[in-house]
Specification:
0% strand, mainly alpha, 85% helix
């Protein structure tokens, strides 16, 4: 048993959760800032800010699709690495690292080609108007060119955490984001590149992140060794990566579908500015939700290892502690949104009409924020113990099965407000269902332990 395995097996769960979660939270916050900083700078471009941020809003479904594929590879690989280490299968874990690198490059290159070739049709479908098409296309074409860096950076950063080096993963993300912020300011306002400057800044910063993460393995300082022969794709490894990664992938693809439907509803009931408002709302929500996703990632290797080692009490304790922390974070977020939304909304654009629509929207959109951790962390728990089908169902429940009908139905009776209320209504129902599934899962552990004790007593 190596140091990482010994730590996951024996250290107190609370200490482990902090050790893994804090760097992951930093990493996720930094990852969010890639998009948030872009939108802040873009929204404040003189004269064209409101329309430019609307153009970015139109591209949100594409950005979410890129994140979906990054999660498919990265989270799928990391979960399997944790489970393999819990089972003592180090060589299998190292094979996953090599396959992750190759898979990231292939997936990224494929997305670049598809996105650029069919760009105009995709953007029109996603809600671009004649006024916002120019800004949407100028931004997303450059982002798509860097898709390989995007996928590789996320995937390897995730595996580095699973490799037992969460601090290094966080440091890589901080440097990447800092690069993005500096380049945003320089390219947009000094070199007057506008929205294209924001996209170039993002691609360069993601390239820095990807190259540094790759060098972590290539320099031979990683806990899991990089071997060239493991770069050759193995069908069985790809299958296991996709099986686990399918749940977060489905959640993000579902989110992209919702964004498309939402953009078209926003366009119909509120016009271009409503789409710009949603882009701002999603950015603010990202700031509050990313710590929760960081807690998710911090808990994942603990849960995965504990479950693989049949330490169900530790797996459950990791979930309960992460749930408590996540609830506190989102409760603070909810209070900020309800009591002083103008403070955060003004950062993205000072236009009074756009601010009015956004403030009205975010107060309704964020109503269920304090209970959302049950749904998100619950789905992650089921995913982390290797139950891909159940995790996928929970993810789709919140983002598609409930949310899409709400977006289609509520605006018919409530107009633009119906789009804002669709998410909290869906969240409330999803939380109840997720809680019931978790209770059933936890009860099954007692039955397994009782059976094991019975067999041991009579052997």
């Amino acid at each position: 048993m190596n140091n990482t395995q010994e730590m996951l097996a024996n250290e107190p769960v609370g200490k482990l959760l902090m050790k893994y979660s804090i760097p992951a939270i930093i990493g996720m916050m930094v990852n969010a800032l890639y998009n948030v900083v872009d939108r802040i700078f873009i929204g404040n471009i003189p004269d064209v800010g409101p329309l430019a941020i609307t153009g970015v809003g139109v591209t949100l479904p594409i950005m979410t699709i890129l994140l979906a594929f990054a999660m498919l590879v990265g989270i799928g690989a990391t979960t399997n690495i944790s489970i393999k280490l819990g089972q003592g299968k180090r060589n299998d874990a190292e094979k996953i690292i090599g396959n992750t690198i190759t898979l990231s490059v292939i997936v990224g290159a494929t997305l670049t080609i598809i996105g650029i070739v069919f760009g105009n049709n995709i953007l029109s479908l996603f809600g671009a108007s004649e006024g916002s098409m120019y800004y949407a296309k100028a931004y997303i074409n450059i982002i798509l060119v860097g898709a390989v860096f995007n996928i590789l950076a996320f995937a390897l950063n995730s595996t580095i955490r699973g490799d037992g080096s969460p601090k290094i993963a966080a440091m890589i993300m901080v440097v990447g984001c800092s690069t993005n912020i500096v380049l945003d300011a320089v390219l947009i306002f000094v070199f007057k590149m506008g929205i294209q400057g924001a996209a170039v800044a993002t691609v360069i910063s993601q390239a820095v992140t990807a190259i540094w993460a790759l060098s972590y393995y290539l320099r031979g300082k990683s806990n899991l060794a990089f071997k060239k022969e493991n770069l050759k794709l193995d069908a069985s490894i790809i299958k296991t990566i996709f099986a686990i990664g399918c749940a977060p992938f489905s959640m993000q693809i579902a989110a992209s579908l919702v964004q498309v439907i939402s953009n078209n509803s926003l366009k119909a009931y509120g016009g271009d500015l409503a789409i710009g408002s949603m882009a701002t709302i999603m950015s603010i929500m990202m700031i509050f939700l990313m710590p929760l996703f960081g807690i998710n990632q911090g808990a994942q290797p603990i849960i995965g290892f504990s479950y693989g080692a049949k330490r169900y009490d530790r797996a459950k304790k990791a979930f309960m502690m992460s749930l408590a922390a996540g609830t506190v974070v989102l409760l603070i977020g909810a209070l900020v949104i309800q009591l002083c939304p103008q403070v955060v909304v003004r950062l993205f654009n000072p236009d009074q009409e756009l601010m009015g629509i956004t403030i009205n929207g975010i107060k309704k959109y964020g109503l269920m924020l304090p209970i959302v951790p049950i749904s998100i962390l619950g789905s992650n728990y089921i995913q982390s113990v290797g139950k891909a089908k159940e995790a996928m169902l929970l993810s789709l429940l919140r983002q598609v099965i409930l949310l899409v009908p709400m977006i289609l139905i509520l605006p018919k009776f409530m107009g633009l407000d119906g789009v804002w209320y669709a998410q909290p209504v869906s969240d409330f129902i999803a939380v109840i269902i997720t809680a019931l599934i978790l209770v059933k899962e936890f009860k099954s552990y007692k039955k397994i332990q009782d059976e094991a004790e019975y067999v041991e007593a009579y052997m």
